[in-house]
User: Fold this.
Amino acid sequence: MAALGWLTPRRRSATARSVLAGEASAEAARKSSQEAQEAPQVAEEEPEFPVIGDDKAAAFFDLDNTVMQGAALFHFGRGLYKRKFFETRDLARFAWQQAWFRLAGVEDPEHMQDARDSALSIVKGHRVAELASIGEEIYDEYMADRIWPGTRALAQAHLDAGQKVWLVTAAPVEIAQVIARRLGLTGALGTVAESVDGVYTGKLVGEPLHGPAKAEAVRALAAAEGLDLSRCAAYSDSHNDIPMLSLVGHPYAINPDAKLRRHARAMDWRLRDYRTGRKAAKVGIPAAAGVGAVAGGTAAAIALSRRRR
Assistant:
């Protein structure tokens, strides 16, 4: 059995399943919100953005390698292993997938297909409340120290301007909501797993919130919240999120993979890279914001650092 994760869809266009996944995620996200805490100011070269008091604007942040180092689902998988949700032999495969993810910086469709099927089989029969409670513990154990301070500061700038801030991730919405709440964000859009009477069935509602499905979720949430997407911002590290980034008037490439970096430069999108102190200095981020948490996930990934110009 493989590590915990969700499928990266191979088709790139929005389908009926993408729309269903997006709308289901938007509905789930609106149920979880929290007021923000104090934060640093936005980068100096953008003194007028975000616009204070603009209630038609919001910000949407990808999670893995944008807000947090590594993949949230792999860290969650470590926590489930610790709690005997799966066996030791599965941990080696899990460790390899996390190491590969950190090396390549992108999701491999074959890995994610395998991971998604395993994830559904792991949670099948478990109560939604149980996984949410475990998620709180796992956040403290494996995720809290892996939040990128620079991205966190950008999110806080939107909150300080009176705007809502949402995570948008392929991770299960229950886990995404835990992370959003701990960071003081408004809420989270995530993959919605089907449940009946509070128990997971082992199926998804629609498909994983990835690629086009993320864009559909943001579009659905914006419509429900009365937002003007041309005044909104979106942040991601992955070229898979170009559909979401293209929806908004203020797209940002954060710790971008090679394809997103090229696209962002071609489109004149703003870039931020917090993976090394040198890169943070290049884009004018406060020194403290360039210091990430220790690279983690598994022993195979500990010494790994993704470096791009």
About this structure: Confidence is low (pLDDT under 50) at residues 1-12, 34-44, 277-309. The longest strand covers residues 164-172. The CA atoms of residues 167 and 188 lie 4 Å apart. DSSP finds eleven helices and eight strands in the chain.
